[in-house]
């Protein structure tokens, strides 16, 4: 139910999360209702109009255009355009129309796997925007980040395309490459990123035990909230408790959301004292509180992890941990989706995904466009946020001055080499650092950053990003658990 912006799973595959779609492309809306969720009380059959005058006006316009427009028109196109126009007038990026093909793809995205780039996207202020790349997905490996705005797909502008049209272009067969031109907040120039499409498995819960100075800490990473996520979370938590964990870290970083009832069921397991896991508010302001069923507080400390890619259902869980459980939440302010959608069938295979409710935190806060703030803010090292270098047209070399050079210098510094400066000027010390990197990696030692060197540098950075030793947020959470035990 978290509000994944009707983001397209460009691989994408999205869940009740940011209210978006997966560019995988499968998606589950952040804050999407499962049809079996008791809160999901909206009609699922055909919608009955209740305004005769409005219907008559629409019918007259439809007939006028059909009969008298200068060229023949397709009636289905007219109808779908009218529906899309009504939804557009709501100024709600999470309420969207899905034709038969898109609705079918939406359902496929709820399967155990799909092909794409592995990211959730949404339409934000008229621009197709990355909500979050999935963990270990092609999108993440290629360097896509939350809030990247897609300008071009394979060199073609997507201005004027709907979210679904853009997602269809991003999707593709496993092994093929899509080139995305993006606009990134803080970057002065557009960035081109090649993403190799792949099969995206939906492994929603990952568990491990971290042993640190004799302390056993369980870690549960939730990558999305699908139909069976709560069941898997329950089993993994029970297994960790059988192993005698002394603390728990719950990681929802990069999780775009999913089914509302899934996060509700998980919240009931860890939020103590019958407190609200989440509150659902309808258009009349009436609230339904989903209460925890846990009678006693867990006998060990719990710490949550969030970042800019945590959306919708992830934010519900993070807020419940923070406000309902009184637990620390480490990381960065989350995405900010506070609405709930449900896919409503229109009778011909098409659907409208419509925002039906707001969700409020345990304390009644509405986090839409605000996000959940961590109790302890921790940013990752600078190189975690850098885009891959684009040197297709010209290698980076001595005496150049550009943002690309600056990014390269920060990468070199991040992996332990000393470029001398990080202001974007390619001086002799930067060239020396490049030569040292090339020699270590078995590349031609030129002191210039060509495509081969840029690719190797990106791969090296990704190994550093994936190394838990460099994950400041994760390590802070582990230290917090240890401190609370003491």
- CATH superfamily descriptor of the domain at 205-340 and 359-377: 2-enoyl-CoA Hydratase, Chain A, domain 1
- Characterize the biggest β-sheet: 6 strands, mixed
The main sheet orders its strands as 11-12-13-16-17-20
Mean of all residue-level pLDDT scores? 86
Number of strands: 20
Structural class per helix/strand content?
alpha+beta
How much of the sequence is in beta strands?
Answer: 15-25%
Number of DSSP helices?
Answer: 12
Low-confidence stretches are: 1-19, 24-31, 35-47
The rough form would be described as flat
| First-last Cα distance | 37 Å
Structure in a nutshell:
The chain is an alpha+beta fold and 486 residues long. 30% of the residues lie in helices and 22% in strands. It is built from twelve helices and 20 strands.
Notes on the structure:
By secondary structure, this protein is α+β, with helices and mostly antiparallel strands. Among the domains are: about 205-340 and about 360-375, 2-enoyl-CoA Hydratase, Chain A, domain 1, CATH 3.90.226.10; about 390-470, Orthogonal Bundle (Muramoyl-pentapeptide Carboxypeptidase, domain 1), CATH 1.10.101.10. The protein is about 30% helix and about 20% strand. It has twelve helices and 20 strands. It has helices spanning about 50-70, 75-90, 100-110, 140, 165-170, 230-240, 260-270, 315-325, 405-415, 430-440, 450-465, 470-485, and strands spanning about 20, 95-100, 115, 120-125, 125-135, 150-155, 155, 175-185, 190-195, 200, 205-210, 215-220, 245-250, 275-280, 285-290, 300-305, 330, 340-345, 350-360, 375. The chain has a six-stranded mixed sheet, sandwiched between helices. Strands 2, 14, 15, 18 and 19 form a five-stranded antiparallel sheet that branches. Strands 7-6-8-9 form a four-stranded antiparallel sheet. Helix 6 (about 230-240) runs parallel beside helix 7 (about 260-270), helix 7 (about 260-270) runs parallel beside helix 8 (about 315-325) and helix 9 (about 405-415) crosses helix 11 (about 450-465).
